[in-house]
């Protein structure tokens, strides 16, 4: 068995496609009526489609999982976030863990938790 994708729920597909392109450089592979596959295996699904499937509300900012990215030039990435046109809601700005890894945690526009760390 192979894990192929990770799906996150978003309220505005176009806004999310732009956010993940601008911030992470992810490109659209497939755009199919509320289901978008991006490079790297990230899938965006429209909120209304997802709630119809599971018949339950989506809880934004639930902190139950996170998307994890690695970036060797974390200082440049931190500056890119600060200068981006997006209203970034940080969990923590650039910090260093006791084991030496530097990380930033923040939410995407729909409240999906993201961590970016050094390799």
TrEMBL record:
Parts forming coiled coils: none
Matches recorded under Pfam families: Glyoxalase_2
Official protein name in the record: Glyoxalase
Top-level taxon of origin: Bacteria
Gene3D superfamilies: 2,3-Dihydroxybiphenyl 1,2-Dioxygenase, domain 1
Phylogenetic placement of the source organism: Bacteria, Bacillati, Bacillota, Clostridia, Lachnospirales
Alphabetical list of InterPro entries matching this protein: Glyas_Bleomycin-R_OHBP_Dase, Glyoxalase-like_dom, VOC_core
UniProt domain VOC: residue ranges: 2-119
């Amino acid at each position: 068995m192979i894990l192929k994708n990770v799906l996150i729920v978003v309220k505005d597909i176009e806004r999310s496609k732009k956010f993940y392109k601008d911030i992470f450089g992810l490109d659209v592979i497939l755009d199919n009526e509320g289901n978008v596959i991006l490079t790297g295996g990230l899938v965006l699904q429209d909120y209304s489609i997802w709630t119809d499937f599971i018949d339950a509300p989506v809880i934004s900012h639930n902190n139950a999982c996170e998307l994890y990215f690695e970036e060797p030039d974390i200082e440049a990435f931190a500056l890119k976030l600060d200068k981006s046109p997006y209203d970034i809601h940080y969990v923590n700005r650039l910090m260093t863990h006791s084991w030496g890894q530097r990380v930033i945690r923040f939410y995407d526009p729909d409240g999906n938790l993201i961590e970016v760390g050094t390799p």
